[in-house]
Amino acid sequence: MSSQASQPNASLQGRAASAAPPAQQSMDRAALDWITSRRPAFTTPPPQRVREATALIPSAAWFCDAARVDSIHGVRHNARVSLLGAVLAQEYDLDHDAATALSVAGAIHDCRRHDDREDPGHGQRAADWLQQNADQITAALSVGLAAEWLQPAVLAIALHDIPYQAFTPTQQRAYTRWPHLVDLLKAADCLDRYRLPRTSWWPDTSRLRVTVPGWLHPFAFDLMVSSEQARLDRADNQTALTPTR
Fold first, then answer.
1. 151-175: string of b/e by CB count within 10 Å (b at 16+)?
2. Which pLDDT tens digit goes with each residue over 25-74?
3. Left, alpha or beta for 167 (phi > 0: left; psi -120 to 50: alpha)?
4. Distance separating alpha carbons of residues 26 and 196, to the nearest angstrom
5. If pLDDT is split at 50, 70 and 90, which confidence band does 165 have?
6. pTM given for the model
């Protein structure tokens, strides 16, 4: 038998232990059960107002190939980062245009990945893609991205996968123009790391340049679990990412 399901380490969690993780990595029930059973002992519940935040859900057609759509960097990850960005925008009192730029950046940031490993350069590819297709993307997402906020969104995407200490002089100069949007996209992306099948890979906020409130951690964890569970139960992505009221 050669199918992935027949292999002893077919689970995402099992494959994470391999020396060379595969290019394609997707959530499965065993991995989600493993993650759920290790839910940290969070002490601060999220406030009611976060329910006002909405995820922007990217189209499956925006990904480099079909294998990426349901992967750990696929539609649901990008949508959750969009929503987490919207929540962080509330926390940091961003105005409407800046918050929209952050949410759009979250929805697009990983959509041009070639694989589910590190994939150097995927941020710049997604940034270029947004630059070239901004009107069509924002129309599809039903948002109005102010013209002056397109470049900050593009920059945040381009830098989201690059450690601060690795910025080139050109990148550093660009960063100093819109540091908050870059910082908050990195924070939103970091918060969705609870989906990864090793606790050592979960959010490390010491790498960030903004403070993440304690209540955002259980919010991010539960958002990931509920949306991944819904998808495993055969909900479509729109349904999986729409919270029940």
1. bbbbbbbbbbbbeeeeeeeebeebb
2. 999 999 999 999 999 999 888 776 665 788 999 999 999 999 999 999 99
3. beta
4. 10
5. very high
6. 0.93
Residue 46 is predicted with a pLDDT of 75
H-state helical runs in the chain: 12-15, 29-37, 66-69, 75-91, 96-108, 122-141, 150-159, 169-175, 179-191, 216-232, 237-240
Domains of the chain from N-terminus onward? 27-37+49-240 (1.10.3210)
Three-state secondary structure call for residue 227: helix
Phi-psi region for residue 40, left (φ > 0), alpha (ψ -120 to 50) or beta?
A: beta
Neighbours of 133 (CB within 10 A): 14
Per DSSP, the chain holds a count of helices (H) and strands (E) of 11, 0
Chain-centroid distance of CA 219 in Å reads 14
* Separation in Å, CA 131 to CA 25, 80, 147: 28, 22, 11
